[in-house]
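re: the backbone from monday

yeah here it is again, tokenized this time
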């Protein structure tokens, strides 16, 4: 999934010049004098306007990676790199609230208050309505606008105003580093445990396995893993979860850009309970692979919608100026040797389409289990396996 894409193009002629001239730094790694170097000097010495070469380099770098035609490779500017790393670490600097724009445009509903954040510590509650941030009314702002204002340098403060039972309350909240939960378990009726996995980045394996163990202790005899809208993550996190679930055998195969092949194997310890996995069109990479591997071992029923079909893996390569490129460097394959790109993604055993409104509620996690048609289909499929 592309991260922090910037629309900095300011006309075709400008972009062509920037794309040719401003990528010089990347070409200079080998120390050679290139045409790009010459063109940058031409611009510096002859351009009549004020050239923001840093902006041009970012635009050129992004254009060069885009020109590869690979939707999974992307450029990360130095300005955005810290936020990118936070995303991979499942952490951020903020106050610890989750918000959704109200339909009446009166503000934002606070749907979740993260333990450990200053909002939680100061007494902000789920159900409060956010109406102002840093002295600015929020009615005309987007969720992205609010996030930009609230997040900032660690240790600094931001005032917020919320509406609770028609009373305005003001809080001064300190920006702190907050670790996000990756996996959460929920006990459903009929001895079914539901585990939602947000991504397969830092802490995914430990939190997922802990959630499963907790559900088993509560009496779960069947499990549903929800990886809908999961953008994927680290191979090592995904394979740790698969190793916990699956018996001895191949878990993951990969082939790098030179054709060198390698694989990751599972040990003989496994968890033998009926399993269903929920996927959709926004289940990428490790998320769809996770479902595919479980199904290939006849360990799970896959329910939901066709996945995207991502079969390349990427490395994030740091560049000299603090920027980076997330570049596809090889292919990966399921335990049985299937590349998901080549087959157009994973087709569920039980396909359950949803309308746009339901899809949005699933993505925002504002739909109840009983109203979620895909969860209900997974429950039905699990109950049939137990008959």
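seq for it, each position gets an aa:
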């Amino acid at each position: 999934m592309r991260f922090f894409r910037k629309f900095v193009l300011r006309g075709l002629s400008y972009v062509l010049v920037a794309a040719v001239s401003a990528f010089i730094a990347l070409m200079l790694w080998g120390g050679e004098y290139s045409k790009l170097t010459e063109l940058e000097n031409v611009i510096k010495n002859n351009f009549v306007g004020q050239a923001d070469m840093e902006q041009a380099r970012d635009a050129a770098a992004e254009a060069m990676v885009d020109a590869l035609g690979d939707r999974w490779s992307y450029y990360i500017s130095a300005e955005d790199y810290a936020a990118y790393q936070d995303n991979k670490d499942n952490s951020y600097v903020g106050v610890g609230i989750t918000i959704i724009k109200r339909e009446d445009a009166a503000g934002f509903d606070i749907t979740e208050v993260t333990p450990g954040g200053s909002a939680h510590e100061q007494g902000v509650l789920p159900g409060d309505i956010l109406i102002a941030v840093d002295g600015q009314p929020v009615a005309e702002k987007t969720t992205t606008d609010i996030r930009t204002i609230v997040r900032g340098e660690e240790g600094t403060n931001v005032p917020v105003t919320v509406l609770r039972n028609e009373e305005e309350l003001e809080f001064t909240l300190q920006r702190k580093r907050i670790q996000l939960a990756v996996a959460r378990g929920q006990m459903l009726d009929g001895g079914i445990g539901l585990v939602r996995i947000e991504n397969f980045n830092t802490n995914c394996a430990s939190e997922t396995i802990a959630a499963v163990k907790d559900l088993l202790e509560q009496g779960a005899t069947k499990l549903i893993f929800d990886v809908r809208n999961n953008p994927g993550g680290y191979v090592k996190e995904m394979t740790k979860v698969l190793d916990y679930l699956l018996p001895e055998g191949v878990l993951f195969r990969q082939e790098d850009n030179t054709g060198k092949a390698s694989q990751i194997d599972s040990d003989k310890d496994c968890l033998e309970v009926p399993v269903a996995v929920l996927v959709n069109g926004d289940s990428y990479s490790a998320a769809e692979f996770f479902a595919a591997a479980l199904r290939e071992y006849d360990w799970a029923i896959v329910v939901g919608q066709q996945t995207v079909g991502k079969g390349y893996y990427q490395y994030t390569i740091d560049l000299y100026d603090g920027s980076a490129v997330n570049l596809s460097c090889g292919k990966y394959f399921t335990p049985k040797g299937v590349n998901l790109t080549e087959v157009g993604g994973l087709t569920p055993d039980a396909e359950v389409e949803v309308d746009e409104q339901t899809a949005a509620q699933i993505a925002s996690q504002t739909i109840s289990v009983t109203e979620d048609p895909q969860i209900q289909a997974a429950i039905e499929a699990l109950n049939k396996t137990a008959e």
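The longest helix spans residues 53-66. The chain has a mean pLDDT of 88.
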